[in-house]
Each structure stands twice: as C-alpha cells, then as structure tokens.
Design goal:
- The chain is an alpha/beta fold and 126 residues long.
- It contains 1 helix and 8 strands; from the N terminus they run αββββββββ.
- It has one helix at 2-43, and strands at 48-51, 54-56, 59-63, 67-72, 81-82, 97-101, 106-111, 119-125.
- Strands 2-1-4-6 form a 4-stranded mixed sheet, with no helix packed on it. Strands 3-8-7-5 form a 4-stranded mixed sheet, with no helix packed on it.
- The radius of gyration is 26 Å and the shape is globular.
- Bound molecules: copper (II) ion.
- Copper (II) ion binds next to loops.
C-alpha cells in the first residue's frame, strides 16, 4: 500500500511539472506573436506594398515634392519601373524597399520588369 501511494505522489508531481512547462511554452508563443505584430507595423510604413504579383494600391495619389516608398513583401523578386524611365528600382528581394520623390505633376504609369503584367499608377498633383 505504501509503495502504491508513493508512486501515486510521484505521478502527481510529474503531472504538475508537465503542466508548468506547457504554460511557459504558451507564454513564449505570446511573445513571438508580439514580435510578428511589430514587423507588420514596420512593413505598413511603405506607401505601396508589392505582394501577390500586384502593387497595392495600384493607383496612389501624392502631391509634388512627396516621396513614395514601395516595399516587396513577397518571396519573389519584383521591380518598380516607370514606363517613361523616371525611376527604376532594379530587382527588390523580399523585404526590399525603394523610394522615389516626385518633383513634377502628372500621371506616371509603372510596371515590374520581371512580371510585365504587374502595373501601377502614381498620380502627382501640383
Ligand atoms: Cu514582379
């Protein structure tokens, strides 16, 4: 009887230890989620996000003198290249950004040299 009771106690201690370690695992998961959130906030500082083979938003309106920033968040290289040659980012890898300042008013269309079906427009108001 005594031996049975002792092994029951050992079993309870093991269960408690397991419960303890699984609760510390879940707090680790929470801090990982917090890090992911701040990464998303950093990405949202770009004006135009390149993802899913699209420029988002595809039409973006600014004023003369404004700087537009693109960020590629897709796991594929992309460029932002003006049809009229005003700018060309070259290939942006994942997480890569490119900025261009617009000094003249007008409508500027651009595309991705790697995937020419990707198109966008910057409307610059004087
Ligand atoms: Cu592309």
């Amino acid at each position: 009887m005594r031996i049975d009771r002792r092994s029951l106690l050992i079993g309870l201690v093991l269960i408690a230890a397991t419960a303890c370690s699984s609760s510390s695992e879940s707090s680790t998961t929470t801090s990982t989620e917090a890090t992911a959130t701040s990464t998303t906030e950093a990405a949202s500082r770009a004006d135009i996000i390149i993802d899913g083979f699209t420029f988002d938003p595809s039409t973006f309106t600014v004023s003369v003198g404004d700087t537009v920033t693109w960020e590629n968040v897709q796991g594929v290289g992309h460029t932002t290249t003006a049809d009229g040659g005003e700018w060309n980012s070259g290939s942006l890898s994942t997480g890569g950004t490119f900025s261009h300042t617009f000094e003249t008013a007008g409508s500027f269309t651009y595309f991705c040299q790697i995937h020419p079906a990707m198109e966008g427009t910057i409307e610059v108001q004087g």
